[in-house]
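User: what does the whole thing look like in 3D?
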Amino acid sequence: MTALAALLVRDMRLAVRIGGGALMGVLFFLIVVTLTPFAIGPDLVLLKRIGPAILWIGALLASLLALDRLFAADHEDGSLDLLLMGSAPLELTVLTKALAHWITTGLPLVIATPLLGLFLNLEPQAIGAVALTLLAGTPALTCIGLIGAALSVALRRGGLLLPVLVLPLTVPVLIFGVAASNAAITGSGFGAPFMILCALTLGSLVLGPLAAGAALRQGVE
Amino acid sequence: MLRLSATGLGCVRGFRNVFNDLNLQLSSGDALALTGPNGAGKSSLLRLLAGLLRPSAGRVAFEGDTDEGAVAERAHYLGHLDAFKTALTVGENIEFWIHYLGGEHDAAPALAAVGLESLEHLPAAYLSAGQRRRLSLARLIAVSRPLWLLDEPASALDSAGQEMLAGLMRTHLARGGMIVAATHGPLGIECKELQLGRSNQ
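Assistant: Here's the predicted 3D structure for the full assembly of 422 residues, as structure tokens:
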């Protein structure tokens, strides 16, 4: 386990030291959420109604922001070859990198959500619901994004391809994340969509690393 | 005694046949120099042995040992790229690889062995090409693995550095290690030579 712990520490350290980590994702989230009211106009009732959806879309786009460098940076400096030659199974190595990525980009988005919720005229209860669904849903976004990040390793300028590959796959997470948030606000059956959201997260925690591992083995050849 | 055995290896890169039916045997204490013109498949053979490329035919395995693990986990691969993060210090870089690759030694003696002990706290971004190569060599010393796969190990090293490299390789062989090195110049150690190129296609 020490091998994976060392990898976790290294990736988190790199995310903090190199720009584009935690702060960049939160800033991007802030900009997306702030732009929306300008586009829609000062209709507080409408903002309140679509607030959870705006927060979810903002978080979805922000979580993709740094993802294209996840494996590409390691591929370019040769680290990926050595990561593949470690004794830890590749899938666990990939999952560890995903965890480090989530802690440095996904978690800050969840923490920033209460503040940004205020911008959209959301009630405290609605803010809590969105933050909770994001906490449950952002790991799924990271793990689905892993597949795209691994596939784009071998491609020059894969960064542009990544959102095209990944965003369609995140649609179910978005649907059930927003559905659960809205259900909590209107007081109608929060449980079912939230459970499905959690199931999507658990499923992608397993499938994401497996698929990304297979893609990486192909990618280094 | 540990032996590395590759039988009937074939390699295809981009629909081009690089080499066919290549056999090699290496026992503890043996060194093998891969020579040949550019594009002869020296680097491809090293990556094949490291498990980073899949052979189109044949297999690579360790023999004669109770613990017949995968070759990749018991080999060091020193490629053209250094595998160091410029945002981390020299010490942090080497310590990460020690932990990740499962080494039991400390970073300090390995850095001292390659002459980088005074630069431990310097970010790796400020190292010269030769110093980066020395840092890569520190990884070989800090984590003991029986097989060293070296791709142009002497590139960018000054003459003192090349002597140091030869010394490290001699020590490794004396301890029963194995080395396969792709090279254009003399390695500075006693070794067999495998010439890749036209003859074995």
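In plain terms: DSSP finds five helices and eight strands in chain B. Residues 46 and 149 of chain B are 6 Å apart (CA to CA).
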